[in-house]
Design brief:
It contains 4 helices and 10 strands, in the order E-E-E-E-E-E-E-E-E-E-H-H-H-H. It is flat. Helix content is 31%, strand content 31%. Strand 4 and strand 5 form a beta hairpin. Helix 1 runs antiparallel to helix 2. The strands form 2 sheets. It has an 8-stranded mixed beta sheet with strand order 1-2-3-4-5-8-10-9, with no helix packed on it. It has a two-stranded antiparallel ribbon with strand order 6-7.
Length: 216
């Protein structure tokens, strides 16, 4: 993310609301501590630094995920970064069960360009983005295609975590690329046919009937 925000790393900011104390440690985690004299006062993790929330090519928040378990899921928190005179946690809410929302004020995000994604990327990824912009301008890709390329760029930069679905998609893409030419396809078909022949012989040796289908 933005290099100037790294000066927040290693620091923690507290906020007390009602009987709870919240502690936000940027690029690390968020914890919640119940302020009570009960022997079993709650103290737990509301999320561990995971990835950025990016909207309109701007960093708008930090996602802290995989906190303590809560019913069937893990607690998670989105930290909104807003301009303020000093670094402080200003507001905490729980918009849905075990999903928290924190507002963090800091002078580090007051400059209009302070949260732009593009300047934080490597030259290679900036070029990739420029190419995507050109393709969109030339109407060679759709808006959806453009957003997909941007998502890939952000994942490659480590700003977003690649989901399992993406990994599966990448693997299937690799497979489809292997069969791009007729020559490769014929070669694979030949190999598979040989394997089937061997397996049929093997099944016959063990007295197991082989049932083929019409599309064999």
């Amino acid at each position: 993310g933005p290099a100037h925000l790294f000066r927040l790393a290693g620091k923690c900011f507290s906020f007390v609301e009602s009987t709870y104390k919240y502690e936000f440690c940027p690029f690390h985690n968020i914890t919640q501590h119940e302020q009570t004299f009960r022997w079993n006062a709650y103290s737990g993790i509301l999320g561990i630094w995971h990835e950025w929330e990016i909207d309109n090519n701007t960093f708008v928040g930090m996602w802290m995920r995989e906190g303590d378990s809560c019913e069937t899921k893990s607690r998670q928190t989105k930290v909104h970064l807003v301009c303020g005179k000093s670094n402080k946690l200003a507001y905490v809410s729980e918009p849905s069960t075990c999903v928290y929302s924190l507002t963090f004020e800091t002078p580090l995000v007051c400059h209009p360009h302070s949260l732009l994604v593009y300047p934080t990327l490597t030259e290679a990824l900036q070029r990739k983005w420029d190419e995507a912009e050109q393709l969109l301008y030339d109407e060679l890709i759709t808006d959806q295609g453009y957003k997909k390329i941007l998502k890939e760029i952000f994942e490659e930069a480590g700003l977003l975590k690649a989901t399992e679905e993406n990994e599966v998609e990448k693997q299937s893409k690799k497979i489809t690329l292997e069969f791009e030419t007729v020559e490769k396809c014929s070669k694979e078909y030949k190999q598979l046919s040989e394997e089937i022949k061997k397996l049929r012989v093997l099944l016959g040796q063990h007295g197991i009937a082989y049932k083929g289908n019409s599309g064999e």
